[in-house]
Amino acid sequence: MPDKEREEKRVNGEAAAPAAVTGAETDAEAPAVEESLPEREAAQDLGEAPETLSPEDRVRALEAALSTAEAKAAEYYQQLLRLRADFENLRRRVNKEREEFLHFAGEALVTALLPVLDDFERALQSPGEQVADFLSGVNMIYRRLSEILAREGLEPIPAVGQEFDPSRHEAVAYEAGEDGPRHTVVEEFRRGYMFRGKVIRPALVKVSREKE
């Protein structure tokens, strides 16, 4: 009898096992229904679980989410317009300040040259009886003018005796000679100047070269 009961339990256990497996397989094979991201967000706003919403509630929830997104988009667009307007105002202000700076950039130099202009006027009004005295006054004015321009950054370009430099000298004549170094400036026709290290006018010079 005990053997018979054990046999029945074994048979019943084997028969029940496939049923349990079949149920698990059925659950695994059942497709999971997932709501879309807007629906989940809309359902959270309503305080409801997504799966509990009716189709009408889902539509209303999506419409509410759409209205919220449109409001945010309009707000961002207005912020963009304000930033663009601020940038345009800044650009116009910078351009105006630059134009004013360029317009009045030489004001300090002109102010410094006014005393020199006064000296020239006095010299022309009272030249004196002696030419030497007049020339002395002109030389004094010239030195004063040179000092003012030097303080501003103007400096003459060395020429006579210097090796010819096409970046600072402009050769307008040549002199063939047997003595002395070649390609050397032997005469200056017009002085050249540099302003703060930049050549603003090359010197017009005569350059020595080999005799043909």
Automatic annotation (TrEMBL):
UniProt keyword Chaperone, yes or no: yes
Signal peptide from the UniProt entry: none
Keywords, ordered alphabetically: Chaperone, Coiled coil, Cytoplasm, Stress response
InterPro entries named in the record: GrpE, GrpE_CC, GrpE_head
Region described as Disordered: spans on this chain: 1-56
Compartment(s): Cytoplasm
Superkingdom as given in the UniProt entry: Bacteria
Family classification: Belongs to the GrpE family.
Summary of the function given for this chain in its UniProt record: Participates actively in the response to hyperosmotic and heat shock by preventing the aggregation of stress-denatured proteins, in association with DnaK and GrpE. It is the nucleotide exchange factor for DnaK and may function as a thermosensor. Unfolded proteins bind initially to DnaJ; upon interaction with the DnaJ-bound protein, DnaK hydrolyzes its bound ATP, resulting in the formation of a stable complex. GrpE releases ADP from DnaK; ATP binding to DnaK triggers the release of the substrate protein, thus completing the reaction cycle.
Protein name per its UniProtKB record: Protein GrpE
Organism for this UniProt entry: Thermodesulfitimonas autotrophica
